[in-house]
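Aim 2 progress update. The chain analyzed this quarter is reproduced below.
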Amino acid sequence: MLKLIKSWLKSSLVTLLLVTIFLGINTAGWTPSSNAALPSGNAITDGKALLRYALPIKNESVRQLQASLEDISTQLRANRRWGAISKDLSKASRVLDKPSQILASVPEERQPQAQEWVDEIKSGVAKLQELTQAKDKEQILQERNKLLNLVSLLEESMVKGFPFEVPDEYSNLPQLKGRATLEFKTNKGNLTVIVDGYSAPVTAGNFVDLVQRGFYNGLEFTRSEESYVLQTGDPAGKEQGFIDPKTGKYRAVPLEILVEGDKAPTYGITLEEAGRYLDMPVLPFSSFGALAMARPESEVNGGSSQVFFFLFEPELTPAGRNLLDGRYSVFGYVTEGKDVLDTLKAGDKIESVTVVQGIENLVEPQA
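Predicted C-alpha cells:
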C-alpha cells in the first residue's frame, strides 16, 4: 500500500506558491538556454466562466455570444467603460439575430428548449442595453449573470456524448462521464461545487464516488500555515487515503490533466515532465475556489481522497505563470459560497457533502 507523507502540503505545494509569488515567474517553463516568452496566461478568474469554456462543444456563434457577455464585468471593473459595454451588447445582438447558427449544434430533440433559451437571452440583451444607457452597474451585473446562466444551459445542450475514451487501465476506477453539482454543508455555511468529468473523468469520478459513500461527512478541514489552500479528505486513523473495502487496498488516482487543444487528458505525468512548459490546462488554478486532487510530492499517481481548495488571489498566481498548473489535477470550482470558503479554517468541519445534480453521469468501476 502506498505510504503518503502527511507533510507533503507544507513541504511542496506551499513552497511552489511562495516561489511563484516572490519570483513572479513560471520556473516550470524556464531553462538557462530558453529565451521563450512566458505565456500570456488565462485572465479568466470566474469558475463558472471556466466551466463554460471547458465544455466540449464547437459552435463559434455561441462562443461569441458568451465572450461578449463575459466581457461586461471586465469593462465594469475598468472604470465603467460604457462604450465598450455597448459594443459587447451589439455583438451579442448580432449573434442572436442569426439563431439558426446557434441551434445548428443542438440535437433536434433539444432544439425547442434551446430556442426558448435563445429568445430569453435576446430579451435579456435588450434589457441590458437599456440598463447600460441608465448606467445602472448593479442591475447590469445581475442581468448579465442571469443571461450567462442561460448561456451555460444552451451550451450544455450542445454536448453530444462523451468526447473521448478513458484508457482501459483506469477502468477499475469510478469515472464521471459528464458533470455533477455538489453541495457542501459546513459549520460555517454552504458551498456549491461543480466537478467536471469532461476534463477529468477519473479524478472527478473518484471524488463523486467517495461523496456517495459519505466519506467526507464529518471530516475536518486542514490548512497550510500560509493559508493558500484548504484541504480535507484525510480519514481518521493511520491511513492517508481511501481503502477500497472490496480490495482492502489503497485506491490511487492518477494525475489527470486535459490541455487546451488536446482531445483527451494526459495521465501519470506533469506537464513539466512532458516538456509542455507553455501549454495551458483546460481547468487552471486561476479561480479562487478551484478544487484539486492532493498527492505526495514524489508520486504523481498517489492521489486518493485528499483534495484541496485553492484560496489565493489569482492576480498573484495567474494561470500560465504559476507552479501549480500542470502539476496537480483541477477537477472543479466553487460556484456559490466563496464568501463562506474564505472564512473556513483548520478545524472547521464538513457536516455533509451531497450530489444534487448529475449522479447519473457516474460510471461504476469495471471488474
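The two ends are 20 Å apart (CA to CA). The CA atoms of residues 61 and 98 lie 9 Å apart. These observations will guide the mutagenesis experiments scheduled for the next reporting period.
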